[in-house]
Every structure is written in C-alpha cells, then in structure tokens.
Amino acid sequence: MRLSRQALRWCSLAPSAWHRFLQAVQQCAPLPAAITAFSCPLLHHGGRHLSAEWPAGSASFTDSSQDTHVPEPTPALLEAVWLSLAPEHTRDKTGNLVLGNLVQSLLDMGFSHTQRSPNVLRMSVKQLKDRGEHLRQLGLSEGHLKHVVSRCPPIFTLPGKKIDATVRLFKEKCLFTTDQVMEILRSCPNVLLKEPSDLEYKFQYAFFRMGVKHKDVVKSGFFRAPFTVIRSRHVFLERRGLYQTPDKKGQTQVINAKLKEIIWLSDKDFLAQLACASLEEYDVFKKLLAREEEEEEEEKRTDSEDEDEDSEGEGELPDHETRIHALHLCYAGFGSTCPSWWRMVGGGGYVAFSSAPLAAHEIAQCMADLSLLSEGDFMVCKGSVAHS
Amino acid sequence: MAALSARAARGLLRRVPLGLGSAPRRCRYKEKWATTLPRVPATQQALQLFDMNYGMQFGPLWPSARVSLLSEPKYGALVNSFSRVHDVVHDLQDLRAADFVYAAQNGPAGGQGPAPLSPNIQCYTFPKGDISRFPPARPDTVGILGYYLMDAASLLPVLALNVQPGHLVLDLCAAPGGKTLALLQTGCCRHLTAKDISVSRIKRLHGILHSYLPKAARNNVSVSVEDGRNWEQVERDVFDRVLVDVPCTTDRHSVMEHDNNLFTRVRKKEREQLPMLQMQLLVAGILAAKPGGEVVYSTCTLSQLQNEYIVESAIKVAETQFSIGVHVEDLSCFRRLFQDTFSFYAECRVGELVLPHLTANFGPTYFCKLRRAQ
Fold first, then answer.
1. Is the pTM of this model over 0.80?
2. Fewer CB within a 10 Å sphere, N or C end of chain A?
3. Does A312 fall in a domain?
C-alpha cells in the first residue's frame, strides 16, 4: 500500500516520469513471467511513444519530447496498473476481493475500450470502489457486473443519482419487483443511459396499450428494443385485427402474439408468421404511421397553446379530471413488496390512493372513467396516504 | 407510493378509442358533448361488426383491407376542365402524379378493344406505394379551382356510365357532388339532373358547382331536393344515363369518424332500413331510365348485403312489379384496365369492388352497370 500512495503522488508527473514509476514498481513487486509482455494500449494513445513493455529488468522509452498527446496517467490508472501487476496486492484495506475482480474487469474493458470511455480513467479510486459497491447492492454480483460492464462501459461514469433514479422508477412507478429490476439491468443495461421519463413511457405503452404483464416485459428484453419498431409492429398487428388491447377483465377476442416474438422476429418472419402481410404493405404502413405520429405531436402542441388561451370551452376538462392527478393507481399483485394491508385486495387487484380527500363515489367515478375497472372491482381505502 | 400514473395511463388510453388502433386525433369523441368516455364508441361498434361480416366474406383478404381503412386514405385530383387545364396539369405532373385514366386507356390492357369509358375525365394520382399528398387546389384568376380532391375509386362508377354526347343524365343522391362534378367534366350532358334528399348536402353541392364551374356551364344543370324513392313521382323512361350512388354504411367514415356516425345506438333503426332504401332508390333509377338506357349503381361499402343483394333484388322487383327487363353489363375489363392504380376483388357475383389496400388506399367502392331492355 505504501507503493500505491507513492503512485498517487506521481500522478501529477509528466509522462516521462513513467520511467521512474515503473522502475519503482519493479523493485517492489517481482514481476511474474507471464506479465513480462504486458503492454498497455493506453500508453499508445495519441502517440506511439511510450511503451510499457516491461521485459524483466528494464523499461525502455523512446524520446518523450513528443508526448504532448498522451493523457496524464490518472491515479486510477496507476492504481489499476499496480493492481494488475501484483495479484497478491489486490486486496485493499478491508480485504475486499470483489474490488480486485471489479478492477480486473475494468482493466479488461477499460483499457481495451479506452477510446470509448476515457472518462472511466478520470475517476478516482474511491469513486470506482463506491460505484462497484453500489452496483453490487443493486444485485449485480461479480459475474453479472462484468457482463454489464462489457455491454455498457459508461456504467461507471454515470452519476450515481441517475442509476438510483432509474431503479426507483422501475420499482416505484412501474412496480417491478427487485428481482425483476435486477434482471432488467442485467439483460438491458442500456436502460441506465436512457431518460427515466422515456423509460416510463415505453413501459406504459407495453403495460396499458399492449396489455403486457410485468414478467413478460422483463423476459422479452423489451427495454433493449427500439421503441419505433415495437410501436410500428404492434399497431400494424392491431389494425389488421390480429392484436387487441385486453379489456378491463384482461380478455381479448383474438389471441395476442407474445411480446418476445413481436419484438425479436426478423421483418421477414414477422410478416410471414404474425402479420401475414407483404413487405410492401408494411413499408407503406411504417411511412404512414410516422407521418401520423408527427402530425399528432404537432396538433398536441398547438392544442395545448389553445387551451392556455381558453377560459372556457372545448378544451376544458371536467372537474373530476383534475382530481385524477391526485389519484394514484397501484397494482397489487402476488409477491409484490407492499404493506401487509394491501394484501386484503388479493392478487391482481387495483388499489387507489388519493392524496386529496376524495369521497368514495368520486374515486369510483374516476376509476370507471378510466375504464380500467367496473365499480365493484376495487376497495376504497379510507383516509389519505401521503407517500412520496 | 405512487405507481402507474393515472394521468399518463389515461393519456395513453385516450389516444386510443378503447381498443382501436392509434387513430388520428380527429377520431376522438367530442369532449364538449360527452361527460364521460362512451362505453363503446360508434367507430368501435362499426369495426366489430365489420370484423364479423367481412372476416367471413373476405377471409384472408380482410386484414389488409382493415388496416387500410384504419389508415390515411389516398386521394386523386380530378382535373377541372373549366379551369386553366394546361397549367393545372403541368403542376400536377411536377408533383410526379399521373393521370390514371389516360394511363389505363393507353396501357397494355387498354389495347384490348375500346373500353367504354366516359370521355374527357382526367384524374391524377400518385403511384402505388407512394403516400404523397396533393396540396389543396388554389383558385385561378377568375376564382375557379383547378382540381377536386376525391377518392379516385369513386370515379370508376362515373367512367363506367359511359356518358356520350347529347345524353340526358340523372344523378340520384347527388350530394355532396364529387360524382356530379365528374359527370359535368365529360362535357356530354345535354342536361344533368341532380337530386338529393338532404337540404344541407344539396347546399354543399351548390358550393362545389360554384367553385368549379363558370356560370355559363351551370345552365344545363338542375339541382333539386327530393326523396328519390318515390316511384310515383319519378319521371319515367326519360334518361339516357342514371347514376344511383346510394347512401350506405360508408365503411371508411364509420371506422374513423365519430361525427355523424351511422353506428351510434340512436341510428340503429336507420341502419337496419338501409338495404330497403337502397333497393327502392335503384328501382327508381331503373324506372327513370329510358328503354336501352344504362344505370350504374354504386356504394362505398364492402357489404354484400348492400351491394350484390341490392342489385339482384332490384332486378327482380323491376321484372315482377314493372315488367321491365334489366340486364347486367360485364365490367370485368375494369379490373385489368385499372389494376396499376387500384386493388380489385375478383369474386363479386355481380359488379366490381375496389378493395382498400395500403399500397392503393382508395375505396371501398362497389359499382355495377345495368342496361334496361328495349
């Protein structure tokens, strides 16, 4: 550990000081034979001047006067290099082997993907460690973590708040279980790079518009697929009469295709097996749908401008609509981590909470209006619940 | 402990009138009239009925027609020969549209004998698969519009009528006036009589005549509000050509628009009485035609009950009640002639049917030609 502190001090040295650093390293830690040919691509970045080839006993450097393009070796880099050279030193003060493996992964990825995520190397050791711990707590154990990092290197450089916000969105707004959230992060780590509002909209499309249940959303790798493809295929099937949004009882008059098939079949197979249509039809349809969406967006924009001007008239919402803002729908299914008294509703019921004191009949009206339930389908819980 | 935001959920459901495809915004119910979401909107009611009937009638062809009905329709531009035609045509050609009537008559299928089409009709459309739109027509220096945007398939009944110079023509159920305008484009009508039962729709017809025809050209047109069913009052044995474009369930309108939708609960009786109304109008048209005259029956629905059955019943009634022989004219050449523009259904018992298809989203249009025996 003394050496690592020394390494940190040397972080501010010019690259030409590598030379001294490496010599110091060699003195402290005998190099295993396997590492003699270690070559750090980073150091080739920008200039092909410094080669960290460490044949035992010597370090050779070319003229370092042209090294202006080589990035400063950061503390993280130094630490990482150090850790790779001396496996027996991978334990830090707390003896956490996970960190070592984590950094090993980082090395495998970080070094070879430097071009893509140079930010990684600007983080401090502490940040790296904390992030690793954070991700581990989210349920990404070592093997999974490595997998995730390989598919989404920027995961380490995201602000911790972003990751938390996304996880919170999945748990609280979308009502995925912890296991499901982990599975999503494992199979679709790209969700961490998306805006939470986009993710929410995408989920709501699947849940409300397509009537897909949580477990199917998770199993199908839904969050990996581009939204335009999902929507155009779904609407194509729907307009052909081959897909129906389930009614409030969850029933349909046609058997809906599985989400997995809708998303992942090739265009050819999708058209042949699910849609029974020609490619020309589908191509024209995609164009028509794109234009429809564009024009709806524009209408919405002009409408919201008009509504602002109206005091009364066509755009006005009836009173109880505004109260829907205060009404939150929660889906209480089996196995969800909810307070015990929710379970009175039973598996698969809706529980309505209101942060404004609504009378029972008003809640009933709101729910009926949403056409999600008939009036007998739910229990009204007296009193308001003020949770964030 | 908020979960699936009700606001957003409602927003998503709102975009979709309960189970329908994400229809354009104009398809939503009018909020100012409804205080709650209708249980089953008229458009969905219509769609369910169509699924039942047409699913059986058309089998595997129905999904393609269905998705087309629920998507944006395609339009043709009927050239107004009373405007500056040369400029209008030039503008339309610049948009890369082509006159489908000209193309049909001069294409490979047109060479097989003279196709009996009404002359002087020019209608520009974009090629199959092209979803471009026409800009709205602009008035020229005298205030006449250069072209009329309409469903190109609804020109086919007018073309089938084969109006010749000097003919007396009757247009029953003329309003709102697209086919009437097309008839006048032929320049062959010695006199055109246009009738409709609805005052408001006749007003629209007048509006169209004003926008498209110079005053002089309107002299040989008489427009009246009348119930064409009345066989007692119809002028018998007068007209060379009769166009009977009956009111029907207007399939495309019924699945897309809530306004004026025939499938609302209050209009159930009206809907059930439609076939009788259609048959009566067709018989009136046959009575009005002179011996040897031709009658074209047309609708904009896919339903056999409103198409072939009506033609067959009207022929029977004409024969049994009025001793008038009526012969069905074969229009199967139309299918070959216009196959590059429209998608036809090949299995009609009598008459021809244009099926909506995404690459050629015209129709639905049914037409059948009858000739009254001498």
1. no
2. C
3. no
